[in-house]
Amino acid sequence: MSDRLPPLTALRAFEAAARHLSFQEAANELAVTPAALSFQIKSLEAHLGAPLFRRLNRRVELTEAGQALAGPASEGFQTLATGWRAARRVLDSGLLTITAGPAFTAKWLAPRLFDFAQRHPEIELRFAATLKILDFATDDIDIAIRFGPDEGRRDAGLHQALTIREWVTPMMHPDLAARYPTPASLIEAPIIFDDSISFLRDSVGWGPWFRANGVAPADLHGPHFSQADHAIDAAQAGAGVVLGRVSLAEAALRHGQLVAPFEIALVPQAEFRVLCPKGAETRPNTRAFLDWLAVEVRRMDDHRTGRRMLDATDLPS
Predict the structure, then answer these.
(1) Which residues of the chain have pLDDT under 70?
(2) How many other CB atoms sit within 10 Å of the CB of residue 6?
(3) Confidence (pLDDT) at 156
(4) Residue 292 has what pLDDT?
(5) How many Å apart are CA 308 and CA 220, to the nearest integer?
(6) CB-based contact 110:137 (threshold 8 Å)
């Protein structure tokens, strides 16, 4: 038996029919007639020298040989589709797709996009705002901004272009700052809880922050938000004091819509990692965005002035 591969059109017809277990549905997907699809499959079976389907009344089943071929055929066409999309993306010089969490997209990226657009009008940005870990190949992503602890295994094979350190500290509307001038006074303040980073083992919540300031934390109560940007919005509206993430509150702090008056800030054992496929960092569009991002990240350092940063390992138990 020859190892020479059969025609690609015959394999494509088989793959669709094996996936649907229906010649009619496969023909509809490939925009051919059922007779044409059946002809392609018969030619494939002749090439193999054995049937790939059992033709039953109104349905088909894969033979043992068909089952052996179905999985690799499907994987092969998926690989071809991925390679084709990758080749087209290399040639599509005007488009850049970035994925980041919804809160980071809304609070950090979106307010800065006008500046990037002015500097690079030739680049069309597209955003996939999701907490799902998207795949660079199958999801057509150029740059990913992911938050969490070090993901060495998951990030293997990727280029880490930048790291953005997160930290948290009490933030509030300026009108509340005069009413709660000390860490101890916050015990009486309306507290807002941001539960978005509670998944971290070294939780940097209100209890650790009060203990770091020498204050015995009371039994605190207040609204809980699963999305960090919602907690920031509530604090910005004057609803209370939030242990805010600087990455998401940076614009509000810069414009005076929020203030962060206390010295101590907590640094979680997590960070934002800016990732792209290895080699892609040299492409003009990707390089332009990464360079711009690095400049914007450095501007966040202004909010660190006069603060004492405590890692989780530095916190009193």
Answers:
(1) 1-2, 86, 88-93, 150-154, 200-203, 312-317
(2) 16
(3) 76
(4) 95
(5) 24
(6) no
* 210 torsion bin: left (phi>0), alpha (psi -120 to 50), beta (else): alpha
DSSP 190: P
pLDDT at 91: 62
Reduce the DSSP state of residue 46 to 3 states and report it: helix
Closest CA to 63 of 53, 72, 74: 53
Cβ neighbours of residue 108 under 8 Å, at least 6 residues apart? 247, 248, 250, 251
SS3 call for 240: coil
The CB density around residue 231, as the number of other CB atoms within 10 Å, is 28
The tokens describing 181, both together, are 């001038």
- What is the token pair recorded at 298? 């450095």
pTM: 0.69
Contacts of 293 (CB under 8 A, 6+ apart): 162, 274
User: Residues 248, 196: contact at Cβ < 8 Å?
Assistant: no
- Can you tell me which residue has the tokens 């702090």? 253
Report pLDDT for 169: 96
Domains of the chain in sequence order: 8-90 (1.10.10.10), 94-164+271-299 (3.40.190.10), 168-267+302-314 (3.40.190.10)
Of 192, 309, 198, the residue nearest 262 (C-alpha): 309
Distances (CA, A) of 215 to 157, 178, 185: 45, 19, 10
